[in-house]
Write a structure and sequence with these properties.
CATH topology of the largest domain: DNA Polymerase III, Chain A, domain 2
Mean pLDDT: 93
Number of helices: 7
Structural class: alpha+beta
Distance between the termini: 66 Å
Number of domains: 3
Radius of gyration: 25 Å
């Protein structure tokens, strides 16, 4: 194999694909490698950990077609360090690749492409199109809310739940719920819940890019996301996702509007006093005022007030994990958000961005 590619194209391709390379490669060392396949006028790069497969292709001057595999992380480091110029990669029959760029020269020991195992082509039952930015937006706005408990495989992932042409991307860990709704305009879309593994849901925003469409293809056990240059495919998580729709109230009782930035900054400052033994902040809603308060026996206390539009005479105090309250504020875009709340121990709801909602259970005490 002998090819010439630009440093920028190859570095971008490696940034996408190496994310899928296996980190635990003792049993199958080759799965820590990235597969390079050169043919016609393109170079295709593929990496997988047997759960996720990420494949991307870039333009290349192919002087000799062929294939090899190279250690993914080290290859990425080398290419990233090279100057901005054309890169020549030439591989011999022993899978040793010579890499040259201007005055830089490397030789890397690879492994035969014949040993690189990628699942056979999957037959999908149906597919639909969405804007790449919309699908990325959906996953970014919910990923933080999924569970970290490995014993709860369904809650570890993110669900794409489709009902009557409306797709809701949602994540919950049992204490909070984040969800984004989008309309699917393609005909033939089938209702169902499709649970993506945790890693796959996190990598979508890293390996898909551009302003065009992404084609989402689905069957009962697999899903793929394909753009004009990249495809990410993964096995779906087996099992049933909780019916998150039934816990979303139509109306929590009271609604206040507040500056997202002001609320976020105040929460960050007040929560600086919080310690491991006092992992909550108190939000008190009183007439036209929101007071944020935290205390700790070890370090002291802190408080801050914000002006809000709230003319109810009844004062309501609710306690929350400050990290859980801050997480959605980091990904929301609206200047002003709505906080809906009811009784002291009822969940609150945050809204403001189109199609997005966040539910959070309060802490007791």
């Amino acid at each position: 194999m002998k090819i010439i590619v630009t440093k920028e194209n190859l570095a971008l391709a490696l940034n996408k694909t190496t994310r899928a390379a296996s980190a635990r490669s003792a049993a199958m060392p080759i799965m820590a490698n990235v597969l390079l396949e050169a043919e016609q006028d393109k170079l295709t790069l593929t990496a997988t950990d047997q759960e996720i497969v990420i494949k991307t292709w870039i333009p290349a001057l192919v002087e000799e077609a062929g294939a090899t595999t190279l250690p993914a992380k080290k290859f990425q480091q080398i290419i990233g360090a090279l100057p901005s110029a054309d890169i020549t990669i030439e591989t011999n029959d022993m899978d040793v690749s010579s890499i040259s760029c201007k005055s830089s020269r490397y030789k890397m020991n690879g492994m035969s492409a014949e040993g690189f195992s990628v699942a056979e082509a999957v037959q999908y039952d149906w597919s639909f199109k969405m804007k790449i930015k919309e699908i990325i937006r959906g996953f970014v706005k919910v990923n933080y809310a999924k569970s970290n408990d490995d014993s709860r495989k369904q809650l570890n992932g993110v669900v794409m739940s489709i009902r009557s042409g409306i797709m809701t991307i949602a994540a919950t860990d049992g204490r909070r719920l984040a969800a984004v709704e989008n309309t699917i305009e393609d005909e033939g879309v089938k209702d169902g819940d499709y649970i993506l593994p945790s890693r796959a849901s996190s990598e979508i925003s890293s390996c898909l890019d551009g302003d065009d469409d992404v084609i989402v293809s689905v069957n009962s056990s697999d899903i793929s996301f394909q753009t004009s240059t990249t495809v990410l495919s993964t096995k779906l998580v087996v099992g049933n996702y909780p019916n998150f729709r039934q816990v979303i109230p139509e109306n929590c009782g009271c609604t206040v509007s507040v500056s997202r930035t002001a609320l976020s900054e105040a929460l960050k400052r007040v929560s600086l006093i919080v310690t491991d033994s006092a992992e909550s902040v108190k939000l008190t809603f009183s007439k036209n005022t929101l007071t944020i308060f935290a205390s700790s026996a070890e370090t002291g206390e802190s408080s801050e007030t914000l002006e809000i539009a709230y003319d109810n005479e009844d004062e309501v105090t609710v306690s929350f994990n400050p990290v859980f309250f801050l997480d959605p504020l980091k990904v929301m875009e609206a200047d002003n958000i709505n906080i809906e709340f009811g009784k002291q121990y009822s969940p609150i709801k945050l809204t403001g961005d189109e199609g997005f909602l966040y539910m959070l259970m309060p802490m007791k005490g």
